[in-house]
Write a sequence for this structure.
C-alpha cells in the first residue's frame, strides 16, 4: 500500500510516543490509565494485557506502546508484542525493524531472546515486532507455541502488552481470551461507531474475555480526520482482498 504523502507531511508517529518531554496532560493521562489497569488486575505476578479496538485508526497501537512506556517509567519491566500479523504498525511507530518477529518465532521456532526481542533503552521497553506476514495469522495466534510464548514472557516481564488487530475484522484477539488477563478497548472521538463497538463487546463476552475498560482517545487531530475521511474501511477491505487473493 502506498503511503499517503499528505498524511506524512503533518503526522510523525514518533511524536505521539510518551517521553519526559510530552505535555503534562499527556503524561498524567497515561499515569491515570496505568493506575486504573493496576487496580483492575490486583495480585502479585506478571500481567498480560490485550489492547483492541473495533476499527483501524482509533489509536490502539500508540496507546499500547505508550501504556508500556508508562509502566516502564514506574520501574516495571515491560514488553510490547505486535500481534497484528496482517497490517502491523508498532515497528513503524517506534522506528524499528518489523522482521524477524512474532510470526517467525511461531512458525520457525527462532531464538526469541537473541534474534527477535528489540531492547529500546530510549523508552525503557522491549518490543517483539510482528515479523513476516504469514498466510494464516489466526492459526499462529491460536497455537500451543503462542500459549507457551506468553507463559515464557511472563516469567521475565511484569507486563506483557499485546497489540491486536481490530476485533470486528478478525477474531485474533478473542482466541487468546483465556490467556490474556484483561483487555482494554480503545475508542476514538468522532470515529468509533456504536454498532461496531457493541459487536466488539459481544465477541469478547462470547469468548469469556475480561474487559478492563474503555480508553477514550480524545478529540480528533488531523490524523483522525484523515481516517474519518477514509471511513476507516480500508483496513477491512485490505484484509478481505488478501484473503481472496490467497484462495
Amino acid at each position: 500500500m502506498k503511503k499517503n504523502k499528505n498524511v506524512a507531511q503533518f503526522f510523525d508517529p514518533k511524536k505521539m510516543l510518551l517521553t519526559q518531554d510530552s505535555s503534562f496532560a499527556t503524561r498524567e493521562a497515561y499515569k491515570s490509565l496505568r493506575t486504573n489497569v493496576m487496580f483492575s488486575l490486583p495480585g502479585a505476578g506478571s500481567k498480560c494485557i490485550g489492547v483492541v479496538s473495533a476499527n483501524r485508526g482509533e489509536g490502539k497501537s500508540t496507546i499500547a506502546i505508550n501504556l508500556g512506556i508508562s509502566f516502564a517509567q514506574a520501574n516495571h519491566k515491560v514488553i510490547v508484542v505486535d500481534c497484528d500479523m496482517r497490517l502491523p504498525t508498532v515497528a513503524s511507530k517506534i522506528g524499528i525493524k518489523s522482521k524477524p518477529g512474532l510470526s517467525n518465532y511461531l512458525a520457525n521456532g527462532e531464538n526469541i531472546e537473541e534474534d527477535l526481542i528489540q531492547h529500546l533503552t530510549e523508552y525503557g521497553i522491549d518490543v517483539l515486532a510482528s515479523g513476516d506476514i504469514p498466510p494464516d495469522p489466526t492459526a499462529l495466534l491460536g497455537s500451543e507455541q503462542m500459549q507457551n510464548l506468553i507463559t515464557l514472557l511472563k516469567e521475565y516481564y511484569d507486563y506483557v502488552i499485546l497489540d491486536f488487530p481490530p476485533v470486528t475484522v478478525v477474531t485474533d484477539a478473542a482466541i487468546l481470551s483465556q490467556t490474556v488477563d484483561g483487555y482494554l478497548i480503545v475508542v476514538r472521538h468522532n470515529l468509533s461507531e456504536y454498532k461496531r463497538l457493541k459487536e466488539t463487546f459481544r465477541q469478547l463476552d462470547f469468548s469469556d474475555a475480561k474487559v478492563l475498560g474503555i480508553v477514550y482517545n480524545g478529540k480528533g487531530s488531523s490524523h483522525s480526520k484523515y481516517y474519518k475521511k477514509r471511513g476507516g474501511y480500508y483496513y477491512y477491505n485490505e484484509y478481505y482482498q488478501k484473503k481472496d487473493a490467497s484462495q
Remarks:
- Strands lie at 47-53, 78-82, 118-120, 125-128, 159-163, 182-188, 211-217.
